[in-house]
């Protein structure tokens, strides 16, 4: 499993032996590298940890939902579609880099990792096809309801716990609680500003196309 429980993090921060061992072993992994000829596509899949498969399943579903939302956005207006597509591309590019490292840490070799990431990314196409079909039936509001619900879960159920864990690691290894506090809140502030700018551009500027 690639992440630690709250008890392990708490034990590590308070000097607990179990948390210390798990925290040190969790950050100690092989050097991340690019694929090479020795990486066979189907070799070693039995040793892949269950967490890696869950990551891939979650990524495939998220990409599928993103495809539906993007298609519905382009159906409403070209400007809105471009803004939404740009947002997803920027987010997914960073997300896939983290997934690559996570999969390698959980038993997937680099070639398999790139193949699985590509496969999960391709799920945007069937999502877009379904999104266009629903939009042509003038039911695009259900797409935005589904997308909004899922991505709110993704933010509050996945991202915030990861930020909490990253802060605990930074405090344990560096002993400086202000650094993760400033970096994380600065990142959130930048995200809110970008969303606000996109909202202003979309609703206040009279797009001719």
UniProtKB/TrEMBL annotation:
Transmembrane segments: 51-70, 115-136, 142-160, 181-201
Record-linked InterPro entries: ZIP (IPR003689), ZIP_Transporter (IPR050799)
GO CC terms, sorted: plasma membrane
Gene Ontology MF: a single term: zinc ion transmembrane transporter activity
Keyword tags: Membrane, Transmembrane, Transmembrane helix
Membrane protein topology class: Multi-pass membrane protein
One of the GO biological process terms: intracellular monoatomic cation homeostasis
Short name of one Pfam family: Zip
Subcellular location: Membrane
Top-rank lineage group of the source organism: Eukaryota
Statement: the UniProt record of this protein carries the keyword Transferase: no
PANTHER family: SOLUTE CARRIER FAMILY 39, ZINC TRANSPORTER FOI
Family that this chain belongs to: Belongs to the ZIP transporter (TC 2.A.5) family.
Name the record gives this protein: KIAA0062-like protein
Organism: Oikopleura dioica
């Amino acid at each position: 499993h690639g992440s630690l429980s709250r008890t392990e993090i708490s034990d590590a921060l308070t000097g607990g032996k179990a948390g210390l061992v798990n925290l040190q072993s969790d950050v100690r992994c092989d050097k991340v590298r690019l694929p090479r000829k020795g990486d066979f596509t189907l070799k070693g899949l039995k040793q892949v940890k269950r967490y890696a498969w869950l990551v891939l399943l979650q990524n495939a579903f998220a990409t599928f939902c993103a495809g539906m939302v993007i298609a519905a956005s382009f159906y409403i207006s070209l400007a809105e579609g471009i803004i939404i597509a740009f947002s997803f591309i920027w987010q997914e590019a960073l997300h896939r880099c983290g997934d690559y490292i996570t999969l390698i840490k959980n038993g997937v070799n680099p070639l398999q990792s790139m193949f699985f990431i590509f496969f999960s990314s391709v799920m945007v196409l069937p999502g877009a096809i379904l999104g266009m079909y629903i939009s042509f039936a003038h039911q695009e509001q259900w797409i935005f309801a589904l997308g909004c619900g899922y991505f709110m879960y993704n933010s509050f159920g996945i991202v915030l716990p990861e930020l909490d864990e990253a802060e605990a690691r930074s405090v344990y290894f560096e002993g400086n609680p202000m650094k993760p506090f400033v970096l994380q809140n600065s990142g959130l502030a930048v995200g809110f500003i970008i969303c606000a700018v996109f909202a202003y551009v979309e609703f206040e500027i009279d797009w001719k196309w």
